[in-house]
Specification:
The structure is a single chain. The chain has 145 residues and is an all-alpha fold. The protein is 77% helix and 0% strand. It is elongated and about 60 Å long. The two termini are 26 Å apart.
Length: 145
C-alpha cells in the first residue's frame, strides 16, 4: 500500500468515526472502538486496491497507450484519451491540479500545500473531480467505460 493509499484509508476511517458518532455515542472503550473502525477502514482500502473501471481508465490514459494493442483497441484507447483530455480541460485549475497530482502518485499534504487549500478540502475536491471526469468521459464515450 502506497503512502497516498494509506492517507486515503486514514481519511476514510476518520470520516466513518465522525459519522458513527453523529448517530450514536460510543458506550464502553472508545479507544478500542476507534482502533477497530480504523483497522476496518485499512482492510477495506487493501481490498479495494484495484481501481474502479473509471479510475483504471484514468490511470491507463495518464500512463499512455500499450504499444502491443491491436488496431481496434488502440483506436478505442485513443478515443478514451481524447475524451479524458477534453474532460480534464473542462475542470477548474484546482480540480485539475489535484487530479493530475494524485494520478502522478503525489500525496494530499504536498498537493494541498502547493495549491493553497486545507488537506480535508483537497480530499473533497479530488472526489468531486474524479466524479466529474468519470461522468464526462462516460458521456463522451456513450456511457461505456
Amino acid at each position: 500500500m502506497k503512502r497516498a493509499d494509506a492517507e486515503d484509508a486514514h481519511h476514510e476511517g476518520w470520516l466513518k468515526v465522525v459519522k458513527a458518532l453523529r448517530d450514536k455515542p460510543v458506550e464502553g472503550n472508545y479507544r478500542g472502538w476507534v482502533f477497530q473502525v480504523m483497522r476496518n477502514a485499512a482492510y477495506d482500502a487493501m481490498r479495494r486496491k484495484r481501481p474502479t473501471p473509471a479510475e483504471g481508465e484514468l490511470i491507463e490514459a495518464a500512463a499512455g497507450a500499450d504499444p502491443e494493442l491491436t488496431a481496434p483497441s488502440a483506436m478505442i484507447q485513443q478515443e478514451y484519451r481524447d475524451a479524458l483530455a477534453a474532460c480534464l480541460g473542462e475542470l477548474d485549475p484546482l480540480h485539475q491540479g489535484l487530479l493530475r497530482g494524485r494520478l502522478a502518485g503525489r500525496d494530499y499534504t504536498e498537493l494541498a500545500e502547493e495549491l493553497g487549500v486545507a488537506v480535508a478540502r483537497a480530499h473533497r475536491v479530488l472526489h468531486s473531480a474524479k466524479t466529474a471526469v468519470t461522468r464526462c468521459v462516460q458521456g463522451r464515450m456513450g456511457g461505456t467505460l
